[in-house]
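Box 3.1 A note on notation
Throughout this textbook, protein chains are presented in two layers. The first layer is the amino acid sequence; the second is a token string describing backbone geometry. Keep the layers aligned when reading.
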Amino acid sequence: MVALGLTNEQIARRLGLTTRTVRKHLEDAFARTGARSRTELAVRWRQEVPSRADLTASV
């Protein structure tokens, strides 16, 4: 959903989570990948698992 450009609030609403939960998951993803921005995180995510790119189209 980050790859689609959604905000934390939009992601939270779609998944029925709090924005704090979304923020925490993203913080963990930044720490694991070393990404410094949401854009970089999305690019790394797509590079590591190219088949996931198809999943974002259906969200």
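The chain has four helices and no strands. The mean pLDDT is 87.
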